[in-house]
């Protein structure tokens, strides 16, 4: 295997080329070619059981990896459910499936069991795919592969252009995919998203192998595929934009009540919470603690377009928070389960702060040598935990064991253990 420190800038993939066998690569002038139509045209949207059964049969009979993508309606609908699923496989063609009309795709998932799924930014799509019964046992993430290979731009459009020499039209990425029927230009866009995904996967596999990073990537893909579903976030209301302005416990209670009321309304109406009430409005109400509907209506975010009934709903939430006994008011900040914020280290533990500075510098230098983002080399939270409470001895064996405990993959442990051992010996005096 070649030296992993070879950079992507030296790669033959940095120029356009390597396009699908039947379409050629970039043009003779080297300019990328616009990809305007799927090879077999836009397939019909699968929206009934009989058509779905045919797709399942076709994809079970295909060969090689299967390209998978999903479109959500973020910013329009409540939650992150899939509103369109796209697949493409050699010998099967492309399929566009409506998961609202066909909400159980577990049969398709089972038909593809054991097949490698190719996704771009897999962690974004896997939760909504899991909801409809599609869970891969093996995957290849082309975005993550691009990061590990050192590409500076890893969006699908940029990767397809830089690696394969084609330009994807990305104008419909943020549309309301819950729209029915879906317009033909949107369907064309969706089909093209999986058109070259397997070709991109094959080219990136060769590039990772050339750089000596293929085994690293395979470990990362296995970690994604085997990860359990994410736990629900504790106190999600604390992520309200502008929360840094809210300091008193009574005000925090108002944020919580308004956020939870908004969430219930949004879920019932199946709309994005931001379309029900903005974060700005929630924070303004918390800071002002309005005494009545008239005072609430004067605040930013509760403008003249809001009806009396809606205003009364929000004011009632404010009053519930104002009526809570002190014992039920939320505490400022969230319970800290790990190290304190790094900005506080110099006062709390100067030696730990020195270790963290040394570790960050060492990891940054190594990431630059390996030509990949620092966060892909080792999770920043892992570095903080190691520096705050170093393992006893802080030798290669103990540091490697601690890294494994925090979820680092074997390749990461091999790469970062030596530099972290040296950083953990820093005593705050420069020694």
Automatic annotation (TrEMBL):
Transmembrane segments: none annotated. Residues 248-328 form the HRDC domain. Residues 15-32 have a biased composition (Low complexity). Gene3D superfamilies: HRDC domain, Ribonuclease H-like superfamily/Ribonuclease H. It comes from the Bacteria. PROSITE patterns: HRDC. Residues 1-40, 324-343 are annotated as: Disordered. This is Ribonuclease D. It comes from Streptomyces carpinensis. The lineage of its organism: Bacteria, Bacillati, Actinomycetota, Actinomycetes, Kitasatosporales.
